Amino acid sequence: MDRFDAMLAFVRVVQFSSFSQAAISLNMAKTTVSSQVSALERHLGVQLLNRTTRHVVPTEEGAAYYDRAVSLLSELEETEAATTASKAQPKGRLRVDMSPAVGHHIVIPALGSFVDSYPEITLEIGCNDRPVDLVSEGIDCVIRGNLIHDESLVARKLGTFDLAICASPKYLERFGTPKTPHELEEHQICRFFSSRSGRFFDYNFTKDGIRSSVRGRHRVAFNSIESCLHGAISGLGIVLSPLYLLEEHLQSGRLERILVDHQIDGIPVNLLYPQHRMLTSKLKAFRSWAEQLFAATKHVTPPN
């Protein structure tokens, strides 16, 4: 038994909760993966996995072994990568997921520099706001706005989106311009809600050290910030949006900023990846590139 191969097979089975998916990821037969894990269990003298017809989950001993195995495999990969860094470029398929707004307006326009720098990496980019399971879907990392409370993920902060609150001239002419956040309670809001949680987000302001939170009323809500913008442009209500999405609409006059003397809490944006997955050289390369990209993006405040 090759203990390294058996350890890797076991780690993949836990990550995918499936012998079949682990075998596919390793380009092996399912029977080979099963034999390697069984040999590892005999070698260690403990049962590492509970197997049923539908599920594969680690035992208590298996979970403890998994944590140590992931750490060892990651350290081994980093050692090999450091040794061969001068000879080899990061390579392989890298699957990344992000919102359509971030993809269309920030990442994709700049992607040529990454492709030129890493010709051996093949990118597969998903642009959607749906919830994704990184491990079961084989996604290497995601870029997401707002705080993500998931202990299974590592969050690398890329920055904070600066925000502004706006409305169309048509809406303001019809309903008036609010002078204070409190007056928003009497206005229609083009509300954004999260596809992942279904949560609606309040508008949080600060002026002269005093914080206020406003919900407002809405008759139409959207799970896409760009849809919120189009709703506001058509006169449906007031919208809160990242400034990087607003510039062209402000310059064209389709939208006007309001409450400009109030500070609005920004939206943190993070790159997230599974905590127990080995940090590959291709993921490190994309993470470093994304950090530089967002640091140079207008209306994104860099991390402290």
Question: Overview of this structure, please?
Answer:
The chain has helices at about 5-15, 20-25, 30-45, 60-85, 100-115, 170-175, 225-235, 245-250, 280-295; strands at about 50, 55-60, 90-100, 120-125, 140-145, 155-160, 165, 190, 205, 210-215, 220, 240, 255-260, 265, 265-275, 300. It contains nine helices and 16 strands. The strands form five sheets. It has a six-stranded mixed sheet with strand order 4-3-5-15-6-16, with helices on one face. Helix 1 crosses helix 3 (about 30-45). The protein has about 300 residues and is an alpha+beta fold. The mean pLDDT is about 90. The chain is elongated. The longest helix is centred in the first third of the chain and has 25 residues, at about 60-85. The protein folds into three domains: about 5-85, Arc Repressor Mutant, subunit A (Orthogonal Bundle), CATH 1.10.10.10; about 90-160 and about 270-300, Periplasmic binding protein-like II (D-Maltodextrin-Binding Protein, domain 2); about 165-265, Periplasmic binding protein-like II (D-Maltodextrin-Binding Protein, domain 2), CATH 3.40.190.10. It comes from Paraburkholderia pallida. One of its GO terms (biological process) is DNA-templated transcription. This is LysR family transcriptional regulator.
For CATH, the homologous superfamily of the largest domain is named as Periplasmic binding protein-like II
- CA(first)-CA(last) distance: 48 Å
**Tally of DSSP β-strands:** 16
Radius of gyration: 24 Å
CATH topology of the largest domain: D-Maltodextrin-Binding Protein, domain 2
Supply the CATH architecture of the largest domain. 3-Layer(aba) Sandwich
Strand content: 15-25%
Task: Report the structural category.
Answer: alpha+beta
Adjacency order of strands in the biggest sheet: 4-3-5-15-6-16
Number of separate helices: 9
Percentage of residues assigned to helices = 25-40%
CATH hierarchy class name of the largest domain: Alpha Beta
Choose one word for the global shape: elongated
Give average pLDDT, whole number: 88
Largest sheet: 6 strands, mixed
**Count of individual domains:** 3
Q: Secondary-structure element order, as H and E?
A: HHHEEHEHEEEEHEEEEHEHEEEHE
User: Would you identify the regions where 5 or more consecutive residues have pLDDT less than 50?
Assistant: none
